[in-house]
Design a protein that fits this description.
eight-stranded parallel β-barrel, cytoplasm, TIM Barrel, single chain, alpha/beta, binds SN-glycerol-3-phosphate, 8 strands
Length: 232
């Protein structure tokens, strides 16, 4: 296998980077880095932010250029379909997150027929990811950190899902979630994952490097008090 095909270079569509939070200030701050393609939420995140779900989604949609992912709370097919349809009224680009349960997959099939954007979340197995792709899910969200917590290899599970999707040409976006640190994030980038969602803290951890600080300090010391070149 060539290096190019291992890293899916022929097939490169660009990687999406989402923020996993309902904290509007952190979203605004992160968006200024110019790399945020959308925001993912879940009931825990929205509750931690002290917000109602509609309130959170509309507030996020105001400050982010890209999709806002909103998770359904119902656990029966009719309830899931009703919530996913209803979320569409909240903002322009809302994607429903539906857990990988039997009612969840049945609801996904119904929503596909109605062209309601929806994908599969709380994914812990390759089998679930295959069902999502066969259902034309917008995305599939394997939980990397929680797979590791359960004694499995989260990054490797994502790598295998991505390989299967690329092999069959499934268009469902592989959206790695529950990413706890930059080491996991970098392994996911190496695996050629379609998308990752990161907490604002893990995104912030992408920036600093002590050698960068050292390098910049050295240049500043060399330049001394000569002022900005633009003022010369
Ligand atoms: O997107 C899912 C994510 O928020 C779950 O993360 O750290 O609770 O496993 P964690």
């Amino acid at each position: 296998m060539s290096v190019a095909s291992f890293y899916h270079i022929e097939d490169m569509r660009g990687m999406k980077l989402y923020l996993d939070t309902a904290d509007r200030d952190r979203i605004t701050e992160a968006a200024r880095l110019g790399v945020v393609d959308g925001v993912t939420t879940n009931p825990s995140i929205v509750t931690a932010a002290g917000l109602g779900y509609r309130e959170a989604v509309t507030a996020i949609a105001d400050v982010v250029d890209g999709p806002v992912f909103a998770q359904v709370l119902a656990d029966d097919v009719e309830g899931i379909v009703r919530e996913a349809r209803g979320y569409q009224e909240w903002a322009d680009d809302v994607v429903a997150k539906i857990p990988a349960t039997r009612p969840g997959f049945e609801a996904l099939a119904r929503l596909r027929d109605e062209d309601v954007p929806a994908g599969t979340t709380v994914v812990f197995s390759i089998e679930q990811a295959v069902l999502a792709a066969k259902n034309d899910a917008s995305f599939v969200a394997p939980y990397v950190g929680r797979l590791d917590d359960a004694g499995e290899d989260g990054v490797d599970t994502v790598r295998r899902i991505q390989h299967i999707y690329d092999t069959y040409g499934f268009e469902t976006e592989v959206l790695a979630a529950s990413v706890r640190n930059t080491t996991q994030a970098v392994s996911l980038y190496e695996a050629g994952v379609d998308a990752v969602t990161l907490s604002p803290d893990v995104l912030d951890d992408h920036v600093p490097h002590p050698k960068t600080d050292e390098g910049v300090a050295g240049f500043e010391a060399a330049w001394g008090d000569r002022g900005s070149p633009i003022d010369e």
